[in-house]
């Protein structure tokens, strides 16, 4: 009701990292990172291999203590109130480790017991999670006989079993086929509303599919912190217009004419020499002008579309060309 | 406490879902009876007791217990499940205690399964069953000591072979700490008090009195302290590894 109460309430329901630093000998894996995440946010960590994504997640999950700085989850410091913080978190470690000799069912029962789920609630949650991740066919199978996709799903089941307020998923769709990826992303979206979710990924399409916030990390530092839409808007492809001719010989001619249009900064032909892209000068919209030009000239176009911006290109620009 | 029980249950289940448990139990039973009947002078001794049987326990434990304990932590580190364990809302001491108690309970099962030899000796003669019970207790306390050392060593390395070898060597040192030929190089230049202290750490000394039926509180305290010390060191090592 009062502003002060609202503030403390929001502190209690979020992840707060202050000047987080992790050093391994001479190597600085996480370098003075500060950020906060609030409920309803699905934060994607993007960055080249070795950028510090996994280390940051491990610190928040309580597996590694920070060298300096602090992290708190729902008001609990991950070092001084480790157990309370861990209760709030569901964590899928990189590679989804589990005990190979256990069956799916006994493994998840073990997690339920470790998380103090009891009685009918325990059995209800187990059933729900079996159902949600389609684990029924493999409940009696030992984990070492499962396919990679099933193993990943067992790992996810383990993370969401206690219906945590915070979910930290390190590469949740790694090793899944496209259908399974789609399903897991659906699941994340479904849970997104009420939880804080942090995922790390190499896949830029995943960011588009599930995240409403992206932090790009390289060498332990935050290089960008924005919505996927705003990041795409940084791309030179943002609001660019691409056209494709039914007859590609017409392309060069059209290129000259389009470059003369007002507001066109540059034009580019792709490697196959069949698509022409016109880049706008700051804030200009080209779609109307180009489609009118095409009409006037009677061009036989097979495609004409407005580009929304390419995340991969932004990613490469920001991280200095390092490949994912 | 609940966490300890949860971990203990998981571990015990895991023993029996791999061949490890059955191999261990069979080898323990075969070797313990083979030693007893072939080298222990069990029949020819003409005495109705199990001294020949218990006399070989320290030497069986020396190799079998490190084989059991080597995987306790090294395997978790190797497969990455340590990350899962340490991010569950459990204290590190609960994990250490749970794993230790499971391994100890498992050893107890193997030891209890030697009961046919107890039946045999009762069939052949009239042994003092009180002495036999005391010897079983002493044997289990000693197994606990070996296990605590092995668990600690396993936490220090990701490599199970190294964990095995180091545990055998350290257990061997504890076993023979009171053995005169090993202590003689120290005599003369090391104060007698220290030599006595080293000798008093010996497993054999403490085990032999219990196995003769003399339950001296000091021997029980010795093994309890030894177990406590190494499990505490185990917790510290896991903390240190976490900090890097």
Secondary structure layout plus pairing:
The complex is a heterodimer of chains A (324) and B (244).
Chain A (H helix, E strand, L loop, with lengths): L2 H10 L2 E10 L2 E11 L4 E5 L6 H9 L6 E6 L2 E2 L4 H7 E4 L11 H11 L4 H14 L15 H13 L5 E5 L7 H15 L3 E5 L3 H7 L2 E6 L2 E6 L1 H6 L7 E5 L5 H9 L4 E6 L5 E6 L6 H11 L3 E6 L4 H8 L6
Parallel strand pairs in A: 3-8, 3-9, 6-7, 7-8
Antiparallel strand pairs in A: 1-2, 1-4, 4-5, 9-10, 11-13, 11-14, 12-13
Chain B lengths: L1 H16 L1 H20 L12 H5 L1 H13 L1 H9 L1 H6 L5 H21 L2 H10 L4 H28 L3 H17 L3 H4 L8 H9 L2 H9 L5 H27 L1
Description:
The complex is a heterodimer of chains A (324) and B (244). Chain A is built from twelve helices and 14 strands. Chain A is an alpha/beta fold and 324 residues long. Chain A has a six-stranded mixed β-sheet, with helices on both faces. In chain A, strands 2-1-4-5 form a four-stranded antiparallel β-sheet, covered by helices on one side. In chain A, strand 1 and strand 2 (27-37) form a beta hairpin. In chain A, 40% of the residues are buried. Chain B is an all-alpha fold and 244 residues long. Chain B is built from 14 helices and no strands. The mean pLDDT of chain B is 89. In chain B, 80% of the residues lie in helices and 0% in strands. The A-B interface holds A 24, 58, 61-65, 83-84, 86-87, 89, 91, 93-95, 97-102, 106, 110-111, 113-116, 142, 158 and B 2-3, 6-7, 9-10, 13-14, 17-18, 79-81, 83-84, 86-91, 242-244.
């Amino acid at each position: 009701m009062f502003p002060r109460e609202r503030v403390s309430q929001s502190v209690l329901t979020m992840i707060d990292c202050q000047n987080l630093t992790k050093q391994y000998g001479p190597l600085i894996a996480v370098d003075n990172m500060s950020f906060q995440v609030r409920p309803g946010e699905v934060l994607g960590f993007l960055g080249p291999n070795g950028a510090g994504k996994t280390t940051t997640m491990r610190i928040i999950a309580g597996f590694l203590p920070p060298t300096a700085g602090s992290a708190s989850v729902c008001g609990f410091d991950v070092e001084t109130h480790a157990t309370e913080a861990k209760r709030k978190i569901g964590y899928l470690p990189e590679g989804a480790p589990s005990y190979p000799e256990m069956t799916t069912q006994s493994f998840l029962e073990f997690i339920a017991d470790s998380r103090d789920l009891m009685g009918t609630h325990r059995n209800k949650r187990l059933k729900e999670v079996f159902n949600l991740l389609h684990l029924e066919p493999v409940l009696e199978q030992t984990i070492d006989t499962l396919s990679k996709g099933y193993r990943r799903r067992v790992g996810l089941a383990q993370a969401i079993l206690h219906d945590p307020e915070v979910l930290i998923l390190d590469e949740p769709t790694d090793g899944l086929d496209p259908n399974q990826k789609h399903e897991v992303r659906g699941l994340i979206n479904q849970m997104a509303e009420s939880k804080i979710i942090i995922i790390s990924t190499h896949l830029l399409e995943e960011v588009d599919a599930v995240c409403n916030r992206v932090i790009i990390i390289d060498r332990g530092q935050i290089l960008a912190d924005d919505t996927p839409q705003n990041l795409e808007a940084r791309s030179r492809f943002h609001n660019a217009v691409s056209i494709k001719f039914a007859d590609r010989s017409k392309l060069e001619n059209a290129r000259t004419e389009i470059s003369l249009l007002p507001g066109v900064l540059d034009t580019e032909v792709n490697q196959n020499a069949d698509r022409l892209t016109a880049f706008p000068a700051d804030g200009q919209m080209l779609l109307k002008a180009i489609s009118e030009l095409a009409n006037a000239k009677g061009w036989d176009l097979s495609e004409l579309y407005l580009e929304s911006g390419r995340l991969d290109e932004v990613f490469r620009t920001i991280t200095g060309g390092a490949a994912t | 406490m609940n966490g300890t029980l949860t971990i203990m249950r998981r571990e015990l289940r895991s023993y029996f879902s791999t061949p490890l448990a059955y191999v261990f139990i069979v080898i323990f039973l075969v070797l313990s009876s083979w030693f007893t009947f072939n080298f222990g002078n069990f029949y020819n001794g003409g005495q109705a007791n199990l001294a020949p049987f218990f006399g070989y326990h320290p030497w069986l434990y020396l190799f079998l217990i490190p084989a059991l304990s080597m995987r306790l932590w090294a395997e978790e580190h190797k497969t990455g499940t340590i990350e899962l364990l340490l991010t569950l809302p459990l204290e590190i001491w609960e994990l250490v205690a749970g794993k230790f108690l499971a391994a100890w309970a498992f050893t107890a099962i193997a030891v209890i399964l030697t009961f046919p030899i107890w039946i045999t000796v009762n069939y052949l003669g009239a042994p003092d069953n009180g002495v036999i019970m005391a010897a079983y207790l002493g044997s289990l306390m000693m197994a606990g000591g070996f296990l605590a050392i092995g668990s600690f060593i396993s936490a220090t390395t990701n490599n199970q072979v190294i964990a095995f070898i180091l545990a055998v060597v350290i257990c061997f040192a504890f076993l023979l700490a009171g053995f005169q030929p090993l202590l003689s190089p120290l005599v003369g230049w090391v104060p007698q008090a220290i030599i006595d202290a080293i000798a008093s750490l010996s497993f054999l000394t403490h085990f032999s009195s219990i196995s003769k039926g003399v339950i001296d509180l000091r021997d029980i305290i010795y093994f309890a302290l030894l177990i406590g010390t190494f499990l505490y060191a185990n917790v510290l090592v896991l903390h240190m590894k976490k900090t890097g």
